[in-house]
Amino acid sequence: MCGIVGMVAQANVQQDLFDALTVLQHRGQDAAGIITSDGKHFFLRKANGLVRDVFHLRHMERLQGHMGIGHARYPTAGSSCESEAQPFYVNSPYGITLAHNGNLTNASALRELLTNTYRRHINTHSDSELLLNILAHELEMLPDLSVDEVCKAVTALMAQVEGGYAAVAMIMNFGVIGFRDPHAIRPLVIGVRETEQGPEYMFASESVALDTLGFTLIDDVQPGEVVIVDMNRKLHRHICQPGILSPCAFEFVYLARQDSVMDGISVYQSRLNMGDRLGKQILDTWPNHDIDVVIPIPDTSRSAAIALADRLKVPFREGFVKNRYIGRTFIMPGQQERKKSVRKKLNPIVSELDGKNVLLVDDSIVRGTTCKQIIQMARQAGAKKVYFASAAPPVLYPNVYGIDMPVREELIAHGKTIEQVCEKIGADKLIYQRLEDLIGALHDVNPAVEHFEASVFDGKYCTGKIDEAYFKNLEQERNDSAKAKRNGPSSVIDLSNAVI
Ligand code: PCP
Q: Nearest 5°: phi and psi at 243?
């Protein structure tokens, strides 16, 4: 998962793009980039680091132009090298730049096709560079540059590219486009802001970016749709490949900000529903529970924990304080860093734990890094019994659509019973959400969404063609030690501060 944003406005866009990326920072902490166009040049700044650290005044002053795109990166393919920060750029045809959220599942085949048949050079390990080059190739095959031709090019792209992708692309002297794969696994919304000079448009991964910048949500980009905002700030929409809306369930569990609405589903309401259903399960299966207090593992689990406590009629208390200056540990690139950060991130409030039977609530248990340490901390703080509840079902299978959990053995619940996981994390009891309850929690908020991409829980991959050989290859490429090796110094061409 990454955060992407795109804009066509009446004035310079760099400040709005910067502000939008800071609001989407929770989707990627590794690198950030903005590229703008003044109609003659592209201006690019990208580097590793948080948004606020990547862009200094001197960079902002150079990012001239009324349209642009931006990216906050969480690496799920390729490496954390600076040269793989986005947006990516190709000069031919026209000058195109692209920022991508998701993961392509046929990246090797696309790489071969681009190199051997389309005769295009791919300079990095990133699948986003492949996506951009497919788009460039398809535009090159068409006689001119118009709304119709762009729709044809994206249609041809969708016929070749497999996986999960939400992308924004900017084409010199044409406009900004946004498109989503035919299952619409990763989110992308479009909004409008009226000004005296006319409308301005913004694409963003999540509606919260539109809200904070004064844009009104128009719609989600639909499955298999391309939305085009041309240089005259006219909006065009076209379904390139009809599909079945299947948004990623894990976006609602953990990835997205709770004040976002995605595909008509309020993330906050869905998390309240998750907590409520989990509470109901506890009452049904453990009516004589002896829980004294419900405590969230901040931050994401808080809304689920509030609703769970309400349902149990047990007090809700804050038992851990999160250092707001430490990022999200789950999206850190290496296990060592994730492990070390938990203790620095969270500190117990002893008075809320001492002598009590506590139910700790987290949004999910993935590698088990957080819950193991938290349970120990709760015991050291004097808790009598430490029960643990997860608002998501056991995470059993790798994600191949843009969440960095590629290796089965790294998932604590893979191949284990709930009792075995409970023992491993050192809890007195472990309660997981049932998958049907998670889906119900989402579906209740917007009954029009009938399908969810929930492969990490059920192993069903909606795009197909994900088999044992695919997993083996993925595990070799993206296990923690392979990633650490690849993140060393890079020799690839660096255009991160270029006027291009
Ligand atoms: C993540 C999430 C759970 C953890 C990590 C699950 O926290 O909320 O606490 O992953 P694990 O089992 O592999 O440890 P953060 O990424 O710190 O995010 P937030 O503060 O939003 O909860």
A: -145, -175
